[in-house]
Amino acid sequence: MIIFLVSMLVIVVLLLAEIPVAFSFGVGALLFTFATGNNISFLVTHGFNTASGFALLALPLFILGGLIMAEGGISARLLDFVNSFVGRIRGGLGAVTVLTCALFGAISGSSSAAIAAIGQIMIPRMIKEGYPEGHATALVACSSVLALLIPPSIPMIIFSITGGLSVGAAFLSTIIPGILLTLVYCALNFWFLRKDMSIKVEPPLPFVDAARGIAKAGYNAGFALLMPVIILGAIYSGIATPTEAAAIAVIYAIPVSLMIYKGLTIRTLGTVTIRAVVMTGSIMAVLFFLFIMSRAMILEQVPKQLAEVLLGISDNKYLILLVINLLLLLIGMIVDDISGAVLAAIIFLPIVEALGIHPIHFAAVVGVNLGLGNVSPPCAPMLYMAGGVAKLPLNKYIVPTLKLLCLGHLPMVAIVTFIPELSLFLPRLLMGIE
Amino acid sequence: MKTKNLEGASLSAQDDLLDKTNMSIKRIAKIFDILLQISMIFTGLGLAVLIFAQVIMRYVLESPFAGTEEAAILLALWTYFLGMGYATKERVHIHGGIVNLIVSDPFKIQLIRFVGSIICSITACIFGYYACKYGFFVIEKGRMSLYLHWPKGLWSAGMIFGFVLMAGYFILQIVTDFNAMLDAKKQSKLISPSLKKDC
Amino acid sequence: AGGDQFIFSQSYNAEHIFHHTSQKFLENLSAENSSYKPDYHLGGDLGDWTSQFEQTMMGVIPMVITYGASEFDERLDLTWLGYVVDDWKSARKVYGPGGPMLAVYNQIFADMDLIALGTIPTGFGSITIRKGVDKVPTSFPEDAKGIKMRVIPSPLAIERFNNWGFSAVPMPYSELYTALQLGTVDGRGFGPAVEIWQMRDVLKAYILTRDYFEHGFWLVNKDWWEGLPADERQKMQIAANETLDWAWQEAEAIDNGFLEKLRDYGIEVIELSDEDRAKAKAILYAKEWPYMEKKVGKDTMKMMREIAGIN
Ligand code: NA
Ligand code: NA
Question: Fewer Cβ within 10 Å of end Cβ, chain A: N or C?
């Protein structure tokens, strides 16, 4: 346990000293593995095996698709169209960002893909419209977690299968918390920006002119608007998996950008691809070393030991729930969300079931906590990823992030934990679970 | 292309040594860089094309060719690791940090960066060593992929190459950061000699 | 990892026979007064079954219960070979303790620095169709045309479902649930009852083709095993043998339990008619078996034919 704490401290110090996140995790994993006397050679094998997984393929494709859309002029037209609705509202574009993350969550099960696909489109646009850059980045980072709450969600599938629960019921359990969190983030966005005069807000227009503006933007965005239709359509008609839909999006975006909107040339397509590959690389580096660190910790049963220490404190049901929340948050900090889901299912699920807590309710608790772990510093891969996409240093977006987390996500964790009806309502209604 | 930083830095360090060998080293570096860029374009776009083709094949050909999955992972791995290597070259690895908030002396900032580069180099070398070890284990066992019957070494070679790139660029970065640190020291001496005591 | 602790792992959850078997082994080993304490990992926290297989080859995990990963040696596709046995009794005789297959497998494992202490039965694997698909294929190849079936990532699996007339779609497990829910695939093959139960809410029918007998391996890393003190190794062997006997006794009841749960849940469980079953078998014997022969050689397949009672 001391070795664990020292390793965590080293990681935090390295992170603060601006060592790349990936290598901070790498040093921590090396130190921990070496000090616990384990064989270091398996770490790389594990990282490689996980990186070879199919689930990650969506990441490079969504990044490439997002960048081509951004450079090729598709995103701009799409956002012009959106702005023709919300451009007259202060903070409107921020709310759209949150809603887009939620919508994207409905097609993808991973937060990193959400940041890749949406962050690089929305963050520059918000900054262009005068949003504080820190706020724009924090909003994307925090909302990316919605991909885990709104089904499908890979960590939720893993949690349910490992815990022997119905995947469908677990999916349903996080929908209401997910929608609530979406609304809370929208509201917080409006509230934070209510007095921000640097944001461009167009003057109100009579209805007819506004409608004309919308129609014009819609006409201009014709091919761009087909893009989400194609992606969502391909997935929900069962033609393609989300990963495949991302590839379809790339293949659609290339000719539209080259020939119709002419935002790209063959030469700049190459440059954009290189940028996408480099961005993929920088994100994968974080994930690669996070997988490695996560494995080193699990091999030494660190999460289990943490649980044993903290759960010994009391036998009050609510206190234990509170402690489990804290533990899930801690685990979310040190392992990736897939491993976190497995650990929650094998360590905590038996405990909470013995306490008489409904397993599907617990699924929702796990969902909101793992999401929070992904964006709560110090080990916050999704947060740094958003910063990487926005090309901002941490000090520029840490305060807005903490504000969003403390006023949005953290209360949601408490609400989900202590109001079981919130997560059980839909599974009961639609699946008839007890 | 955003390769100017590093080239600029190495230029200033070497501009008095413009002899023939240096020119050819530069030319080789340039060619290497172009090759890297072409590879990244190939793997990145190739991945999208391949997965797209898979969807088409599933509907047109009735019985799809299973090898596409393997090839997709192969391209993806090379994409990831080429990207990691190049991200090192361009210094765009994702990082947190508050150095700029608490330290204002440019020399100290450069010192921290210099130490950081050393730490990263060592880490990349250690993991690179184990990546090679694993890669050669796979190659030695003569493993073949299931569907394409290509040597599995092709897959792990992506990781080896990526770590070699990362380690190499981090080591170059040590040199750059060391020079930058010396420059910063000269400058802070010029501005206020009293700062010298702090170091 | 201090003293005489060693990692013992399996990647399935607490409902799975692999877990029950592991628990039994922990009991039996401590009853033998072994000084070795297994540090037991379940649920895939050390990676999926393929990854755990590889980690055992490399010695990171000294002892594991997992399936034979044909990506490391395609001869391991032998475990998935179709219609070798028809019922639990003959399955035990062929694959179980004292049966002929363990030696065949150990020959393959010898090249991978692995030793199989035994096999753990999961049960017969069959096909399933998702909700929202009208067709319930029972007669191959007529009923199979145009049905997209997810198969495990193995050439033999693709071979089988294409031979039966399906459109075989190899797909990673992580995408399977969503694919079944949204209809990217119409069903899946290679499903023992326990895995059908895991994805019950998107499935409609479970068609008992019983095309193969699913069994995992109890593997140890060769160097680790041979490096154990002789008396400790013997204690482990005894505990393992007792556990294997137990597993082969309990497995059928556990498997049937899941089948019962599926029926209660409302999934149609359909038996093949004798005629359809004979047709399904004939196709595999005519196409899949010669295909397998190319990988494992004539001798092994001759033995398999004798076991299956075909010429
Ligand atoms: Na989602
Ligand atoms: Na965190």
Answer: C
